[in-house]
Amino acid sequence: MDANDLLMGGGIKSINWKDNPIGHTVIGSITETPKVEQMKKFNSDELDFWPSGDPKMQIVVTLQTDQRDPSNEQDDGKRRLHISPRMMGPVREAVQRVGAKGLEIGGRLAVRRVGGTGAVGDPFTFAAEYGAPTVDPGSLLNGSGGAPAPQQQAPMLPPAAPQTTPVSPAAQSLGITQPAAVAIPCPAGMDPEKWALLPEAQQRAVLAAMAPPAGQPAPF
Question: How far apart are CA 150 and CA 68, in angstroms?
Answer without folding.
Answer: 35
